[in-house]
Structures are given as C-alpha cells and as structure tokens.
Design goal:
There is one protein chain. The protein is mostly helical. It has helices at about 5-20, 30-45, 50-55, 60-70, 75-80, 85-100, 110-120. Helix 4 packs across helix 5. About 10% of the residues are buried.
Length: about 140
C-alpha cells in the first residue's frame, strides 16, 4: 500500500467515525413534530422524484425512529404507522416508477434491491414486496 492509499484509507476511516459519532441534541416537542412532519411530507407528499434520495435514506429513517421514541405522542404515531397505508403505497410506487423511468442511464436492479429500496421508502409503514403497477399480478 503506497502512502496515497494509506492517506485515503485514513480519511475514509475518519469520515466513517465522524458519521457514527453521537451528539446530544435538545429539541422541544414542537421541533420534534415539525421534523417528523417534514420527513413524512418528503416521503409521502413531495412529488419530486429527486426527494427519493432522502425519502429512502436509512439514516433519516433511524432519525425518525429516534424522534418517535422521544415524542410524547410517539405511541399514537407508532400505532398509526403500524397499519399498511394503501394511499402512501400507491403514491410511493408511482414516484419510484417515475424515478426509474427518468434515469438517463437505466440501472438493472435485482428483486432484492427493489424490495430494499421499497421498504426504506415506505418506512414507517409496514408493507409487502415491491410490485410495479405494470405487474399483471398486482
């Protein structure tokens, strides 16, 4: 390994460590609600396909989970989101399919990859396997 490779590896390690470092943040209940609403809007109301970068982010899903734990109304939210939401599923399916159709260089995705993307984008709602709207078995 040359010195450039070692330096690059050390930089990647520092970046990974920094990303995983925790910090205490104190939010009011109003701030928690506002952030949760913004994330849910981004996922299930924002029409822009570019929003999928954030709507399916595992890091944002973890943050949403943590905020629900800290929320005084978190149990209500968990109960509400414990049921499938057909409207949200339809909206997300349409947004994902538009995003795939808009790709300048189409990506081949395995069924497992499609399902992982689907599950991440649909969080916090439970959902089954991803089925494209054009799938005759839907």
């Amino acid at each position: 390994m040359n010195s450039n490779d070692q330096q690059h590896s050390q930089e990647q390690h520092r970046e990974r460590s920094a990303e995983e470092a925790t910090q205490a943040v104190h939010l009011t209940q109003g701030e928690i609600h506002a952030i949760q609403k913004a994330l849910l809007f981004l996922k299930f109301e924002c029409e822009e396909t570019a929003s999928l970068l954030y709507a399916g982010s595992p890091l944002l899903n973890i943050a949403l989970s943590k905020m629900r734990e800290a929320d005084v109304h978190g149990e209500f939210s968990k109960q509400f989101h414990s049921n499938p939401n057909r409207h949200a599923e339809s909206f997300m399916r349409d947004k994902l399919e538009r995003s795939y159709a808009e790709e300048h260089v189409p990506h081949e995705r395995t069924e497992a990859q499609l399902n992982e993307i689907w599950q991440s984008c649909m969080f916090p709602f439970p959902t089954g396997q991803f089925k494209p709207e054009s799938d005759p078995q839907s």
